[in-house]
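To assess whether ligand presence alters the predicted conformation, the chain was also submitted together with pyridoxal-5'-phosphate. Input:
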Amino acid sequence: MHSFHYENGSLQCEGVNLDNLADQHGTPLYVYSKATILDHYRRLSDGMGELDCEVCYATKANSNLAVLNLLAEEGAGFDIVSGGELFRIEKAGGDPAKCTFAGVGKTRAEIELGLEKGIYSFNVESEAEVALINVIAGEMGKKAPVAFRVNPNVDAKTHKYISTGKSENKFGVDFSVIREAYERAAALPNIEVRGLQMHIGSQLTSSNPFVEAVEKVAPLVEELKEKYGIEFFSIGGGIGIVYEDTLASGDSAWWDKRDEKPLTIEEYSARLVPLLKPLGLKIIMEPGRFMVGNAGVLLTEVLYEKRGSAKIFQIIDAAMNDLIRPALYEGHHDIVPVKEPVDGTTEAVDIVGPVCESGDFFAQNRELPPLDSGDRIALLSAGAYGFVMASNYNTRPMPAEILVDGKVAHVIRKRQSLDDLIAGEMIPE
Ligand SMILES: *Cc1c(COP(=O)(O)O)cnc(C)c1O
């Protein structure tokens, strides 16, 4: 869905002009489109045919309370990776009974919180963890619902930092020993074996690794259903998005060279539903990036142009502390001027931030229309793993966040003040 587009020479999000938003709220500024988030949620929740399936949004992708509330109102469940995220879900009006709790390192306090709130399943990543859950559940007089996360040893063919389904990754229990793990867990007095989970990686742009993993794991699911009466199989998240061509292309001559094909829900569904349907149990999906990635942009302003002997640098007021994907895993973001370019002229520039690190760049040798100090640009596809990974490095306050709904722009997080930024710090007497 293309909620970001040019209108009367200026970039808009739905019915809101981004230049005006930047005037009002300053930059750097995260801007999300409500219509896009809802569209993505509905496409996925309606897109899986007659499968009995549930969407548990991967909270970590964008955990602003307003975003969580939007999805809670739609009836979504949530995949969480910390007690903090469970706290957010409740504050946002989400239902803990629709939460699955993932993560390799759940603490005692987090397990207690999950049990107290009655989450749907602990997605367990080791036998040591299930042993501790059993003890804590016993102390609390409860039976803990668990699923093992199986590591199917499948290559997701994505960046190594976001690949999770190979034997050398820290995630899940090895496919080769998973049956024994279930046997031992099922014998524990305070454990109820409820499902099986897997998640092979993030930003997958082909359906092949999903198919390979489901084909490998399906016989195991049938066996576990038979033996322990498990009720769900979670196939994880990981549906990739196209980090290019996220803008309605319009007539701009410089903007016609994109041809990367997205992994569509139609294809995902057409290939997976026939494999999943015969299993006859509830299928859970845990999409993060797919739901919110292309629903957000980071708006920023050009501070200076610097023409070096080898390169042209455009120094902007957003930095790696605001959006770390390029520095962390070479993430790509398309970049477009807020003011619509008048012709097809471009030059190759580096877009860099003010932080004192050479890794603080958003694009290198990127062909972009000419830019001047004071021009605004938008880094596209910044709705997932954007703000949530922001930090205060270089004592830079966190940016504000806006949720656009039609012609209305809601502030969903105030820009952090410098006083807020140092609020927890103390100088010893
Ligand atoms: C991060 C994560 C997801 C979401 O991944 P996306 O690539 O954003 O869809 C789903 N499940 C688990 C267990 C995760 O850790």
